[in-house]
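Structure ticket #2291
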Amino acid sequence: MGLSDIAAGVEVTAEQRDCGVATVDETDAPLSERLAEYESVLPCDAEAAATVVDVYAEGRAIGAAARVAGIAPTTAAKTLHLLGEQVTPLGPTARDVIRDWLHGDLARTEALELTGATEREFALAAYVETHDPIPDAREAVAAELSSGLGEGDDPLAETMSGVSDLRES
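Resolution: structure written out below.
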């Protein structure tokens, strides 16, 4: 077989056919349906979890999201944590104290005193330290909880001046 035999059916055209991009997008399903498969590991039912995510994604506080969903604020915070949000009520040093308490290096009363946290904050911080977010559930809510920014995008970029703005007057 020669080169002419191989190229026998090849044509050159002026236009390229756009086939599009093949995608599988399950975000058309309601959020409560996407969260239903994780209901057994979430601290509330899928409907309440979807409500918490929707209200929180609007920019409202966790307490407000909990009230709308009809659950306790701590339950809403636990739900958001399992869905990949950063909701720990304590700073890095206090989280280290919580870890020391969890490892048995400190008494609970001492850890509570050192963190300066309330009972509720302490309990939530301990939950966050002992429960990892659910990776697949994180993907289920990614569209709702994303800021719309790509990695490396700065939400305040418009407010900053560049080097070219530093001209002498």
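Closing remark: Residues 97 and 111 are 6 Å apart (CA to CA).
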